[in-house]
Amino acid sequence: MSPLPTQPLSPLDGRYQAAVTGLGEFLSEAGLNRARVQVEVEWLIYLTDHSMFGSAPLTAEQQASLRALVTDFGQAEIDELAELEAVTRHDVKAVEYLVRRRLAALGLDSIAELTHFACTSEDINNLSYAITVRDAVNTVWLPKLRGVIGKLAELAEQHRDAAMLCHTHGQPATPSTMGKELAVFVYRLGRIVTQLEGSEYLGKFSGATGTFAAHVVADPDAAWPAISQEFVESLGLTWNPLTTQIESHDWQAELYNRVAHANRVLHNLATDIWTYISMGYFRQIPQAGATGSSTMPHKINPIRFENAEANLELSCAILDSLAATLVTSRLQRDLTDSSAQRNIGVGFGHSMLALDNIQRGLGEIDLAREVLLADLDANWEILGEAIQTVIRAEVAAGRSSIEDPYAMLKELTRGKRIGQAELVAFVDALDIGDAAKARLLALTPAGYTGLANELVDRLPGA
């Protein structure tokens, strides 16, 4: 058997690549290396702007030429870095050498020794990861999550008045509306989005063990902590003043836990929608040319939601592992985090794929209101809650002498199917006030939804 041509090992880079491609702009090896070049270039510009170590400020044209190393970063740089790393056996050193080569090409040899000045590799790495993760979350992943929330909010509004039998513990229960139940997920996910929008992305820039030791020896009079803070904040990050060789990664653990929380709420949504489909509450809209089952032509399998479940579980497994692993480093440094962080994109990729499936799946279902109404009409016993509650109110108000209304309704309804006629006869015989009796006689399962419709207005922006 002939060996296959080189193939992507991960489905994220093969079968599902189109759904996650935006993340590769930031969370790939190339995206990381571009951010490393950015940090190296900005540090050079910072040092020269402040005329440190005999340097002079670069002209606007020279600064633009340096920054073009980032904006024009492409396949040539990717290939060159691979060649350099094959020799250096060190990814960050390869970036430093690339920048030095570009300085020579630009006629800026005079500042070459300021490249990577007083930096440990982690000074570059931690800032680069913070930049790439921040940009991936804010420009790719969060907009996709907001798209799902927007679709859910649209469905919640559309179905706000669609009365539906609830199923607490899997058993018929007090009705709601489909819109209100979807609104619950909109609200839950919206809170997480607010938390994610407030996430901090921390960075350190303080040398081999976080002490500015080499910096102080090179220039004892410079205000190195202030310089470090100003530089880190110039990249749009939050400065961490107290670290070892590495930034402590606590912000990453916090972020990945929040993303995993969103994943789990989305997983709950996917399983609920799947269940509603299985109950006939939602019908799936046939897609032209699609096959539901290889042997059963009638089937439309809910694959969007099943795919989402699997990918959300994979995403959580990776993000949970990262959150647990990254907060620990032996003494002042070990390389566990280096290998772990290379899987950040994989964690977000599986979540992104799930979001894509959920968003598409929500656009391929239609509410079967007639099924909802038929289910309600077959379960009049659920009005037992309303009846016993009204009786208790009447007893409290002195308009009834009935003893133990709950036990009375339990005897009538528990474990039984009763219809409208039986309930009407029961209510007619009750010793309660006329107004209360009239309300109960007018009540139907489809009308027993409380304030479900109005609760949809509680959504932010509703």
From TrEMBL:
Swiss-Prot/TrEMBL keywords: Lyase, Purine biosynthesis
GO biological process: IMP biosynthetic process
CDD domains: PurB
Gene Ontology MF terms in the entry: N6-(1,2-dicarboxyethyl)AMP AMP-lyase (fumarate-forming) activity
Pfam families to which the protein is assigned, alphabetical: ASL_C (PF08328), Lyase_1 (PF00206)
UniProt keyword Lyase, yes or no: yes
Highest taxon, organism lineage: Bacteria
Domain Adenylosuccinate lyase PurB C-terminal: 329-449
Annotated SUPFAM superfamilies: L-aspartase-like
Listed PROSITE patterns: FUMARATE_LYASES
Annotated pathway: Purine metabolism; AMP biosynthesis via de novo pathway; AMP from IMP: step 2/2; Purine metabolism; IMP biosynthesis via de novo pathway; 5-amino-1-(5-phospho-D-ribosyl)imidazole-4-carboxamide from 5-amino-1-(5-phospho-D-ribosyl)imidazole-4-carboxylate: step 2/2
NCBIfam families assigned to the protein according to its UniProt record, in alphabetical order: PRK09285.1 (NF006764)
Functional summary from the UniProt entry: Catalyzes two reactions in de novo purine nucleotide biosynthesis. Catalyzes the breakdown of 5-aminoimidazole- (N-succinylocarboxamide) ribotide (SAICAR or 2-[5-amino-1-(5-phospho-beta-D-ribosyl)imidazole-4-carboxamido]succinate) to 5-aminoimidazole-4-carboxamide ribotide (AICAR or 5-amino-1-(5-phospho-beta-D-ribosyl)imidazole-4-carboxamide) and fumarate, and of adenylosuccinate (ADS or N(6)-(1,2-dicarboxyethyl)-AMP) to adenosine monophosphate (AMP) and fumarate.
The protein's name: Adenylosuccinate lyase
Organism expressing this protein natively: Microterricola viridarii
